[in-house]
Amino acid sequence: MVAATRLLEVSTVSGSDDAAFLQQVGREVRDIRERRGLTRRALAAEAAVSERYLGQLEAGDGNMSIILLRRVAAALNVPLAEILDTEPDHPERRSIRRFLDQIPRHRIADLLVRLAREANSERGARRSRIALIGLRGAGKSTLGARLAGELSVPFIEIDRQIEAESGLPLAELFSLYGQAGYRRFEGRCLARVIEEYPKAVLSVGGGVVSQPATYELLLAHCYTVWLKARPEEYIQRVIAQGDMRLMTDAQEALADLKRIVAAREPQYRKADETVDTSGLPVDEAFARLRERIAAMSRGYPP
């Protein structure tokens, strides 16, 4: 009877509240899609839904069933996420979830990263694995290989590890398995590299930040450096590498790149260090990176 009364109360929630909820759902879907660098068409194909439906969802016109499920959750006095979580439950897990429910949402991600870093007792191992992240054209391969040579440790490009494990070039892997398949290979390869290499310099694709579990693994076990540059420079450097596709519609490519950078920047800033290579020749960019790594080493006990 109490639950029925509660459901009746919830059903009287104003239409504006429902509309605001659908708008928020749409924004979340759009933001996650953009962080992962997916077009609406690509996500629709990956999710096996129509592009029209996805457009409506992102515009805040999602199916009414979302609202009804939200009302049921409110009547039960539980977060909507608890109903949607269908994994096997345990008392410890419920306790952790209740604890997290009391923490402001904007602080949860940072708290999880700090806990992971503290839980990693091998602090020396974390500083001995240096991971460079950033978009293509940031300088990960050039600077990473040079840094690894100076430190006398292996230089490992995760994309090359993915190609070796899958037996496919990246372009073919994306064609066969899509973005989701690539991310699965990326997570497995990163976990294996961390297990096998106590000392290394890693080059990791810029989209790793869009996969929370993989990114948290990286932050917990590697000293992570975000190599950043101005969007215009990313494009210039990629073209200089011989990829002329971006010249077909440079303005549209630049606009897309700016949106991706803006969407991912809060995640990139969780890295231990940020090195801005904008306008710098390779030697100067490397000198800046090397100084940051040296400062990090001085900050740890021997």
Can you describe this structure?
The structure is a single chain. With 302 residues, this protein is an alpha/beta fold. It folds into two domains: 2-85, Orthogonal Bundle (434 Repressor (Amino-terminal Domain)); 113-298, P-loop containing nucleotide triphosphate hydrolases (Rossmann fold), CATH 3.40.50. Helix content is 67%, strand content 7%. Strands 2-3-1-4-5 form a five-stranded parallel beta sheet, with helices on both faces. Helix 2 (15-35) crosses helix 15 (250-268), helix 8 packs across helix 13 (212-221) and helix 12 (170-196) runs parallel beside helix 13. The longest helix is centred in the middle third of the chain and has 27 residues, at 170-196. The protein is globular, with a radius of gyration of 22 Å. Mean pLDDT is 78; it is low at 1-14.
Helix content: 55-70%
> In the CATH classification, which architecture of the largest domain applies?
3-Layer(aba) Sandwich
Shape field: globular
What is the H/E string?
A: HHHHHHHHHEHEHHEHEHHEH
The number of distinct helices, counting runs of at least 4 residues, comes to: 16
Oligomer: single chain
Strand segment count: 5
Q: Order of strands side by side in the largest beta sheet?
A: 2-3-1-4-5
* CATH fold assignment of the largest domain: Rossmann fold
Taking the sheet with the most strands, its summary is: 5 strands, parallel
Please tell me how large the radius of gyration is.
Answer: 22 Å
The CATH class of the largest domain is identified as Alpha Beta
Tell me, rounded to a whole number, the average pLDDT.
Answer: 78
Number of structural units classed as domains: 2
Euclidean distance between termini CA atoms: 65 Å
State the CATH superfamily name of the largest domain.
Answer: P-loop containing nucleotide triphosphate hydrolases
Structural class: alpha/beta
